[in-house]
Write a sequence for this structure.
């Protein structure tokens, strides 16, 4: 962290680097969860949802890049070994053993809700103390909120489609 940045930061930088490394581990897990889930999922609206999940995966990777850059700016060391990811991540990786589209979406939804909580914590910790990290956390938080909404919308659409099919069968 530059000298001026150090002089104006009013927080525990070591604790912040720990929080950012935890978020970094979660972003890598989220990237893979989205990417592999998009590849293996089966069910209605697959082609439409697959492209959206792959976009989410790309955005999670971009979040990881932001986190690494900020950790380095703060004088910290980003996680260097993927074996550390499960030890640091507080948001669990959900293996898509059931490839049904709703199951994959619910797993991703739970991950997004955990990420929302993570970035809310980072934003609260850095608010008025470390403007650069705060702005990054809010930017990522907004992306995660949008991802949550996308997934909720897909689940609503799938349930509506299932309801319409049930109604047709009753006729």
């Amino acid at each position: 962290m530059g000298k001026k940045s150090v002089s104006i930061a009013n927080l525990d930088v070591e604790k912040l680097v720990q929080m950012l490394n935890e978020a970094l581990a979660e972003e890598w897990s989220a990237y893979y969860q989205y990417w592999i889930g998009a590849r293996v999922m089966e069910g209605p609206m697959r082609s439409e949802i697959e492209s959206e999940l792959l976009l989410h995966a790309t955005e999670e990777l971009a979040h990881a890049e932001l986190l690494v850059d900020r950790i380095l700016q703060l004088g910290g060391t980003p996680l260097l070994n993927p074996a550390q990811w499960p030890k640091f991540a507080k948001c669990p990786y959900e293996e898509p053993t059931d490839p049904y589209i709703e199951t994959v979406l619910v797993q991703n939804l739970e991950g997004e809700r955990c990420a929302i909580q993570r970035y809310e914590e980072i934003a609260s910790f850095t608010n008025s103390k470390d403007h650069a990290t705060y702005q990054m956390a809010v930017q990522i938080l907004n992306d995660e909120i949008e991802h949550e909404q996308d997934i909720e919308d897909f689940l609503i659409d799938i349930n509506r489609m299932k309801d319409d099919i049930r109604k047709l069968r009753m006729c």
Summary: Residues 42 and 163 are 19 Å apart (CA to CA). The two ends are 68 Å apart (CA to CA). The mean pLDDT is 94. DSSP finds six helices and no strands in the chain.
